[in-house]
Amino acid sequence: MMTFLLETTRLGLNNLKLHKLRSVLTSLGIILGVAAVIVVVAIGEGNKQSALKDIAALGATNVILRSTKPPQAQGGSQQRSLFVKYGLQDRDLRRIMESVGDAEVIVPLKAVGSEIAHGPVRTVSQAFGTTPELLDAARLQVQPRGRYITIQDMEQMRPVAVIGSEIARQLYPMQDPIGAGLKIDNQVFRVIGVLKAVGLAGGTGSALVGRDLNKDVHIPLTTAQAQFGDMVIRREPGSVSGGEMEISEIYITAPSTEAVINVSDRIRRIIDIAHEKQKDVEILVPWELLEKAKRELLVWNIMLVTIAAISLVVGGIGIMNIMLASVTERTREIGIRRALGATRKHIIWQFLVETGSLAALGGVVGIILGVLVSLGMHPLMDFLSSLPYLKDSFTSNFTMQPRITAWSILVSFLVAASVGVVFGIYPAIMASKKDPIVALRHD
User: Fold this and answer.
1) Model-level pTM?
2) Of the given ranges (115-119, 307-311, 325-329, 392-396), which has the lowest mean pLDDT?
């Protein structure tokens, strides 16, 4: 019995070899379907991991408050909007400290200045007066040889600054910035450290924060309060905006991710009461955004995989059509095999071997194609975005880094093989039901 099944399997595989072109064309739908599933999942997973990384970089246990100019202040005359008072105030900070006593740290940031300069080189950026705790709260790191703001800097109101990596690149391209001078508007500071580059320069995190963190400049909060007023001017190409603002941001770090929602709810109540009419404070909870992003990206991935899986079904239908035609074409062969003693099971097995082999081979080739396309997509997009006549079509922070997942390869192959078997059963049964005498008479 086993020998007969092995011989039947060999006959099925030999029949595929006799019709190489037809076999390749038959399995083409499976090949493209498997490749599509792998590429789509890789793109979705890459985008998902990039977005989640950006959100998580803000700190899963953080609650971030940010002053935003209210809509009514953005309209009207330029002079009126320039001097409007809005955003977080010192009394808000005191209320939060009193009400959220279980927070690990509460770090205020005060925006000052609008232009950063070193010698003749100038750039539009934002400086922030803050405290030493921001380094841990915002998950920042300082490059070797430098240091961050200390308690002594705060107490003595030292004119020192820690600059972002992009500021260091722009203002000090050919020298070590440590110890060099830096001007924030007309105030002179000494650079004591350079922050390591953070991954929020472009993408989800940057959109949430509202700026490129690599262009920030940090100075002691006491120095900012002493040397700068509450007036904040923002210069952008073709426009100038600003207003009076005591505190631009507040970082509150909850003791754990389980406590984040409770802390954020208490903060929301404080802000809703104090800023009910103004609507000039935005509350950002990375943990909530993280959970929301996971749900949204899961739904998106399911939809993409479903669309790609349709091509697998189409490929299976193609296999069934070819095999049905093959049954008619090989009617005489089936009659001869039945006359020589082959049972219905043997005929079914032979046709299932052919359809299963087509699907499995198509699955393997599809996996290889899908992996190669996924690996080549990142360099291809980088190349296309660098072309002079195409770069304007891409945003400055555009990136595509597909991530191949093992489950997509395994699932797509198993589905492809199953599709081959499922869609091959009907032609196999049709072949096995042929009457041997009628089949032998078929021309």
Assistant:
1) 0.63
2) 392-396
- Name the helix (H) or strand (E) containing 36: helix 20-57
The DSSP symbol for 223 reads: H
Separation in Å, CA 45 to CA 48, 292, 302, 306, 374 = 5, 16, 11, 15, 11
Q: Can you tell me which residue has the tokens 């093989």?
A: 417
Q: Determine the Cα–Cα distance for residues 129 and 387; give it in Å rounded to an integer.
A: 41
Secondary structure of residue 433 in the 3-state scheme = coil
Distance of CA 66 to the CA centre of its chain: 24
Q: What is the mean pLDDT of residues 254-281?
A: 85
- List, for residues 221-250, the tens digit of each pLDDT value: 999 988 887 766 665 555 556 677 889 999
CA distance 171 to 309: 52
d(CA 428, CA 350): 8
CB 148 within 8 A of CB 133: no
CB 157 within 8 A of CB 145: no
Bridge partners (DSSP) of residue 66 are 249, 282
Which tokens go with 174? 């050919």
Q: Which structure tokens are listed for 194? A: 């350079």
